[in-house]
């Protein structure tokens, strides 16, 4: 069977590509600009190009058909409209990567299923994903376009450390603050619940849907089974670093307001996602992919990631602006406490 992944070298997709590269049943193609070829398994075929150059891609795909096409870099309706034009009649299944952040915030019930209403007034990213889903499912209902919707939550790999609050350059500065004995900001009181999934586990659920006729026209959330509070998540990182966690809890509303003044979209990432407790019911996925389970719990996954990150500091940027932002927020709130 032939699979084409648009992108294919990101956090979610790399785990899938590596898993399929070891499966003799699959022939894997990546369509991207070729910037990260060194990380791609040798038996994976590369189609180099810009997916936004539609005519060039159409020419490069001339005569090719696939069992599965999945776009990991489609973030708005314009992108999925392009994919429909390129792949309608060329693939037996098109898998769209949506997001669990598309679910209603706050949800009517803390247990999330695929039937939970989609609505996110806080985050444009999530609203765009909802619009993509609606377009593709409309094409399925009207024309039989073979779409499958996948909704990941917080997926990570060896290159990433999951956090609730970080700067525009990513997680690295928070790790540095922990190492330096500084306080780190955690949204809310740290007790809200969250699901984390290592990309190797995610790949099991995803590949189990590939080529599966029962997945056509359906949506599936793919997350691990482990549920942790945000305090537990940060303490697990500190334990793996061998340092003491010094948490500083700040309300998500305050972070959203003050963060906007410094160029941080905490309204979307927190109010629209990470500040809300979620527990995912993955029974729909497990009916089709019964082997889907958590094999890399967070206390192991974060050590895998930290081993890589600490061994490759040249790949990560320190973020003095975010470091200063954290200090300003903590100083301002401490001063406010003393004035009461």
From TrEMBL:
TM segment ranges: none
Domain NAD-dependent epimerase/dehydratase: 4-220
Pfam families: Epimerase
Descriptive protein name: Nucleoside-diphosphate-sugar epimerase
Signal peptide: none
Family: Belongs to the NAD(P)-dependent epimerase/dehydratase family.
